[in-house]
UniProtKB/TrEMBL annotation:
This is Sulfotransferase. It is found in: Golgi apparatus membrane. Belongs to the sulfotransferase 1 family. 3'-phosphoadenylyl sulfate binds at residues 100-104, 183, 191, 293, 309-313. It comes from Otolemur garnettii (Small-eared galago). Signal peptide: none annotated. The gene is HS3ST5. GO terms for biological process: heparan sulfate proteoglycan biosynthetic process; negative regulation of coagulation; regulation of viral entry into host cell. GO terms for cellular component: Golgi membrane. The lineage of its organism: Eukaryota, Metazoa, Chordata, Craniata, Vertebrata.
């Protein structure tokens, strides 16, 4: 009797083992067929840059991003850097502006793509003489660790309006991709003022009203010496950049649309950067409490921008807004003509 039970148990174990092996072989074949059905071009090759020693599909990069996050959080050791083939790469794309146009939102949203790694802080290498004097290796070491197949992106909105920056970036990489995110110029100027005003109030300092800064009291015309106004004359700054880079190396992002409907804008940027399309509506969800879109990296990790984003603007005299929009209009028209992108600005 005991012998029969042992035989029966052996037969059962053999059947279960066969099922387990069969299931495993099915899964291996299934994953292999999925990879064959979804070929993905090497990221570096599509960007036209140097090839890395190994080529990862996006699925592998997505997994490896989790490792990068852990390394950044805990400071990767030299051994980890060597074992995982990590590098600190110079950026292949830079968000050069515009201040209060949505540069932080754009950077964080692009970071949803598994082939993109962001520099978390504004480096201010090209617009700061002291930093620039430290040399290109200092700049590279400020970049995050990444895999060779990923691209690094940094953002420093002061680059757009600083005179020396275009030539300095050109000397580093004449074929670099440049992103400019813009908003309706008057709205951007008021947003710029609002940020400065908040900083003054935190220090218990008084500050002029926007109207007094934006309009010259002597002439009653728009005050072009006021930095917030000057920054919004986009075409003046862009013309300086065009002395060094062809217009094909720039991509204009509509910052007003990015707030309201981010996905189409992000898809245009993916195309400009020659990235396989990966960011989807799943990655973006509207947070009614905050009043803007937040980011979903996976089922576990979500992220919203800092609470300082989306400040409430002070009320501004409607006649001043009208005067500013009339002033900016011809500059806007020229900006549309140069960039080939018409935006819905009044």
């Amino acid at each position: 009797m005991l012998f029969k039970q042992q035989v029966w148990l052996r037969q059962k174990l053999l059947v279960l083992g066969s099922l387990a092996v069969g299931s495993l072989l099915y899964l291996v074949a299934r994953v292999g067929s999925l990879d064959r059905l979804q070929p993905i071009c090497p990221i570096e090759g599509r960007l036209g840059g140097a090839r890395g020693p190994a080529e990862f599909p996006l699925r592998a990069l997505q997994f490896k991003r989790g490792l990068l996050h852990e390394f950044r959080k805990n400071n990767a050791s030299k051994e980890q850097v060597r074992l995982h083939d990590l590098v600190q790469q110079l950026p292949k794309a830079i968000i050069i502006g515009v201040r209060k146009g949505g540069t932080r939102a754009l950077l964080e949203m692009l970071n949803l793509h598994p082939a993109v790694v962001k520099a978390s802080q504004e480096i201010h290498f090209f617009d700061n003489d002291e930093n620039y004097a430290k040399g290109i290796e200092w700049y590279r070491k400020k970049m995050p660790f990444s895999y060779p197949q990923q691209i690094t992106i940094e953002k420093s909105p002061a680059y757009f309006i600083t005179e020396e920056v275009p030539e300095r970036i050109y000397k580093m990489n004449s074929s670099i991709k440049l992103l400019i995110i813009v908003r309706e110029p008057t709205t951007r100027a008021i947003s710029d003022y609002t940020q400065v005003l908040e900083g003054k109030e935190r220090k218990n300092k008084t500050y002029y009203k926007f109207e007094k800064l934006a309009i010259d009291p002597n002439t009653c015309e728009v005050n072009t010496k006021y930095k917030a106004v000057r920054t919004s004359i986009y075409t003046k700054h862009l013309e300086r950049w065009l002395k060094y880079f062809p217009i094909e190396q720039f991509h204009i992002v509509d910052g007003d649309r990015l707030i309201m409907e981010p996905l189409p804008e992000l898809q245009l940027v993916e195309k400009f950067l020659n990235l396989p399309p990966r960011i989807s509506q799943y990655n973006l969800y509207f947070n009614a409490t905050r009043g803007f879109y937040c980011l979903r990296f996976n089922i576990i990790f979500n992220k919203c921008l800092a609470g300082s984003k989306g400040r409430i603007h002070p009320e501004v005299d409607p006649s001043v807004i009208t005067k500013l929009r009339k002033f900016f209009h011809p500059f806007n028209q020229k900006f549309y003509q140069i960039t080939g992108r018409t935006l819905n600005w009044p």
